[in-house]
């Protein structure tokens, strides 16, 4: 049987092909997102291609809902792939569950070469063997029970209705070596690797196999992935070697930990990209924080993806675990918020602003609050103050209003009636009526209008408020102080 030679079709080394290969078993968390980002940047820095492949051969753990959600989250982050499940090309399909015919050809090639054998061991037998090895102080490996079954034995077990898995026959005495892009030279002897499953009993391809075969068939030249896969790489290299396929260059990126040192991936939900998105974090903030996690970048300031691609260098990937820090994310978020255009800002705060708000009050509100807002939740309280009913006064505000007295507010109402919402005109009317200036002039006004003694620029906030609402808020203290 002729197997297409992927190596021959692999692009020249100068145009890297990278990929992100998530399993749709949950939402994209920050660790995955960083892996995806690094792979995208590695491709883009040299004009290469970035692929998205869904690794969904594990039918029990893969869920349809996560397929869509993962694509959506990656798109939202701006990590646009050149080919993927929604952008097929001649190397697809980009969903492993649709690649069974291709895998079948490669299984047949391995079988013809005697590189695999059927294994009839039950889960229980394997567990017993594993425990026994652990108890004897040995690292657990497949004991080789089915390695040398005769054809008759195999036929007999099959006749009993036992569906076998397919195991890779690890050649004894072999040494697998590779140069890891992050961790340098790696070397493993085959005695450390037990014969491993390449096809599950239900006929689906196991991770080691489909992942390696797909990288070769899709022309992937570089794989950056989590260091939890480091021990898998020798197995994958053995498969590729047995099939005569080209191996990518692997780089195993250190894990992403939270501040307490626990792996982020274990904090289900809490560290999902979707969770941050729902709280109003901006993609630019997340990407900028991730770009600097485990990758030392001298470039300062908020970078766009193209700038990141120019600045990205796998040689700057560190071996030490990187720590995600929400404080740092927040400071990137602050910069990202400051970089929003008025339209973007309005969209970003759409959940906070009243639905049918006119252009003028909306832009005045954004101008007033954006300098001090990191998340939409921070703006929500101000939206209520500005667009809701008259606010409750806090203690300091109540004191200031009481101290100003009703004459102050009668003058303020007159100023507001004459000028609309012009702070200088209102303050001018109060000044002539009361002789107040400075804080004594402005503080009671702020207190009556916002219920607080501090906050965003009052002149701008006033422009966001409806003139009638302003007059009413002032008038309630013109008759009598609270
Ligand atoms: N599906 C694997 C994972 O999500 C991919 C590993 C790899 O990038 O090779 O961990």
What can you tell me about this protein's structure?
This protein has 482 residues and is mainly alpha-helical. The protein folds into 3 domains: 253 residues, 3-Layer(aba) Sandwich (Rossmann fold), CATH 3.40.50.620; 70 residues, Glutamyl-trna Synthetase, Domain 2 (Glutamyl-tRNA Synthetase, domain 2); 143 residues, Orthogonal Bundle (Arc Repressor Mutant, subunit A). 46% of the residues lie in helices and 9% in strands. It contains 20 helices and 11 strands. A 3-stranded antiparallel sheet has the order 3-4-7. The chain has a two-stranded parallel sheet with strand order 1-2. Strands 5-6 form a two-stranded antiparallel ribbon. α16 packs across α17, α16 packs across α18 and α16 packs across α20. The radius of gyration is 32 Å and the shape is elongated. The N terminus is likely disordered. The site of glutamic acid has 8 residues, from β8.
Secondary structure elements and their pairing?
Layout: H1 6-9, E1 17-20, H2 30-44, E2 49-52, H3 64-77, H4 100-112, E3 116-119, H5 123-135, H6 151-159, E4 165-168, E5 175-180, E6 184-189, E7 197-199, H7 207-217, E8 222-226, H8 233-243, E9 249-253, E10 256-257, H9 273-278, H10 283-291, H11 305-311, E11 322-323, H12 326-338, H13 342-348, H14 359-369, H15 376-387, H16 395-419, H17 423-434, H18 439-450, H19 458-464, H20 467-475
Parallel strand pairs: 1-2, 8-9, 10-11
Antiparallel strand pairs: 3-4, 4-7, 5-6
Helix pairs in contact: 2-10, 2-11, 7-8, 10-12, 14-19, 16-17, 16-18, 16-20
The structure holds glutamic acid.
Glutamic acid binds at residues 21-23, 55, 211, 223, 225, 229.
């Amino acid at each position: 049987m002729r197997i297409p030679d992927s190596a021959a079709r692999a692009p020249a080394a100068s145009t890297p092909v990278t990929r992100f290969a998530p399993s749709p078993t949950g939402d994209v968390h920050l660790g995955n997102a960083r892996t995806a980002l690094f792979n995208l940047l590695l491709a883009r820095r040299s004009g290469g291609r970035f692929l998205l492949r869904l690794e969904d051969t594990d039918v029990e753990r893969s869920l349809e809902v996560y397929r869509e959600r993962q694509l959506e989250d990656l798109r939202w982050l701006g990590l646009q792939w050149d080919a993927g499940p929604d952008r097929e090309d001649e190397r697809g399909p980009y969903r492993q569950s649709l690649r069974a015919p291709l895998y079948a050809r490669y299984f047949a090639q391995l079988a013809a070469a005697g590189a695999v054998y059927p294994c009839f061991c039950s889960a229980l037998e394997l567990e017993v063997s594993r425990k026994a090895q652990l108890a004897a102080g040995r690292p657990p490996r497949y004991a080789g029970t089915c390695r040398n079954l005769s054809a008759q034995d195999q036929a007999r077990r099959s006749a009993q209705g036992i569906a076998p898995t397919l195991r890779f026959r690890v050649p004894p005495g072999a040494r697998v070596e590779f140069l890891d892009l992050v961790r340098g030279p790696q070397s493993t002897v085959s005695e450390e690797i037990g014969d491993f499953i390449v096809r599950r009993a239900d006929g689906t391809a196991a991770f080691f196999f489909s992942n390696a075969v797909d990288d070769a068939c899709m022309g992937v030249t570089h794989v950056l992935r989590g260091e939890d896969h480091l021990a898998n790489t020798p197995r994958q290299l053995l498969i590729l070697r047995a099939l005569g396929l080209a191996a990518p260059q692997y780089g195993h990126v250190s894990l992403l930990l939270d501040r307490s040192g626990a792996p982020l991936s274990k904090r289900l939900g809490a560290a999902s990209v979707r969770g941050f998105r729902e709280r109003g974090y901006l993609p630019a903030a997340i990407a900028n924080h991730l770009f600097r996690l485990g990758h030392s970048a001298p470039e300062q300031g908020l970078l766009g993806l193209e700038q990141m691609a120019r600045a990205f260098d796998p040689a700057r990937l560190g071996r030490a675990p990187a720590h995600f820090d929400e404080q740092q994310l927040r400071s990137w978020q602050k910069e990202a918020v400051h970089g929003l255009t008025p339209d973007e800002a309005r969209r970003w705060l759409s959940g906070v602003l009243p639905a049918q708000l006119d252009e003028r009050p909306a832009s005045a509100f954004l101008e007033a609050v954006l300098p001090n807002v990191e998340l939409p939740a921070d703006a929500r309280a101000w939206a209520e103050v500005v667009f809701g009913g008259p606010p409750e006064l806090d203690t300091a505000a109540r004191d200031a209003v009481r101290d100003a007295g009703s004459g102050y507010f009668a003058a303020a109402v007159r100023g507001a009636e004459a000028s609309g919402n012009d702070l200088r005109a209102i303050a001018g009317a109060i000044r002539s009526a009361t002789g107040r200036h400075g804080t004594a002039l402005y503080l009671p006004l702020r207190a009556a209008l916002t219920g607080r003694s501090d906050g965003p620029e009052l002149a701008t906030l006033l422009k966001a408020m409806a003139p009638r609402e302003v007059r009413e808020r002032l008038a309630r203290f013109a008759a009598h102080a609270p």
